[in-house]
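Annex B. Sample input.
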Amino acid sequence: MELPEASNFIEQIINEELEAGKFESVGNEIHVRFPPEPNGYLHIGHVKAMCINFGVKDKYHGTLNLRMDDTNPAKEDYEYVNSIVEAVKWLGFEYDKLVFASDYYDRLYEIAEKYILDGKAYVCDLSAEEITATRGTLTEAGVPSPYRNRSVEENLKLFREMKAGVYPDGAKTLRAKIDMSSPNVNMRDPIIYRIAHVPHYRTGDKWCIYPMYDFAHPVSDAIEGITHSLCSLEFENHRPLYNWFVENAGFEKPLPRQIEFARLNITNMLMSKRYLKKLVDEKFVRGWDDPRMPTIMGLKNRGVPPVALKKFCADVGVAKAYSVVNQAQLDSCIRDELNATAERAMAVLNPVKLTITNYEGEEELAFERNPLNAEAGERTVKFTGSVYIDREDFSLNPPPKYKRLQKGGTVRLKGAYIVRCDDVKLGADGSVEEILCTYFPESRSGSGEECSVKAKGVIHWVDCKYGVDAQFRQYTPLLKDEEYPDQDYAERLDNESEKSFYGKAEPALFEALNDTPFQLLRTGYYKKCTDGGLVLSEIVSLKDSFKK
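Annex B, continued. Sample output.
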């Protein structure tokens, strides 16, 4: 059997197992899964997990189940299921089957009874607080439950009564009988089932006991014939428990193997569904798809191309060691993709009027839609000699080496002419109201004529007659600092992470379809959207601070 070359430690493990014949009984088919819990919207950290799992599926021509690990009915809902399916499809991943842990509730219950019959599980009457108090510490063994030695018959009777709804929430649990002195605290008689009289979004009121994640997850893997359970590093200490549940459930080999990789951590990003849900519930953001959110739907709404997210995860790579990636690396991947694909356009966020006093009439100027893609063609922009420029492109008191417009100085209007500032009209407060200029007809861009006047700077503009009103939304990270100090995340939130500006844009932006990305010249990458008028929402800035 010819194996693909391994590009990371996970693929190296898979190759070694295939070479050893571990999966000959299942036709050497590699079967993986992506198993989110439907209790929130997926975020960028899940993109890395998807890239790894779907990458293994594709490389080994295997199969992949998209599984909803829905064992906590109080927090799960179809809204989250649908958002997960949409996120996976938007990223361009194709799964083989959509399954649910709740599909296996009957089978999971049967396996729990098998544990009891084998003397490996018991019903415990201790409260959750008492179980925690008797579990011990990293240096001290736990205290066995006084109910640990109940007979098989009594445990079976009590467990069936739990299922029948005889007992209230918290009255009893089913616990695995493993080792209360294990150095791994997870192995100290963990809970398998708890009582919860809560309707499930799929099974309704059929169940009032629900399996714990640490039990349901590995056993669901085994039921599905998963060969490799690829998960993030925080589950490393749970691996012995994963193995115990699978090995004692009666499945035939090969049994699934858990392999951990380092999760994705990015500076200035809050990546926890629990905290992100809190931001939504407390209305700090407008919803799970707010453009500031690191959720996949938030990134989609912001205008981030899915290929850029996958490229970013590929660049980060698959490693075992914990690390934090600078957000500048993510921005750089987004910027690279948009630079190659986005059309160019002009918009002015802080406009001031510039009038060319010796220009008459109007004309159409040709601009490349994307200078990196000749097939994109050209667009035309009307020019009347009265335009808006950005206030930052003019100075009454310019600093040294200033290359933009100043009184008596020259500058080129992008794609048009060189102009010279002759005079300035000031308002009562001393601010610039209008810049009066002379233009040089022979300086038209692309004319091929020689012009005796030179200009060191080039600035963008929007025509006063044909330009349209626009709102510009700019974003900064939700978290102010790059580090992770020991303080409540709420203290680190930036209350000014979204800012709005009102300016002018060329008509092409108004006429474009919603969600079309543009590179606004000298401004940034923005997405066109309509919200009671033309809104241009920032995707990423032009400035690249990441050292490739």
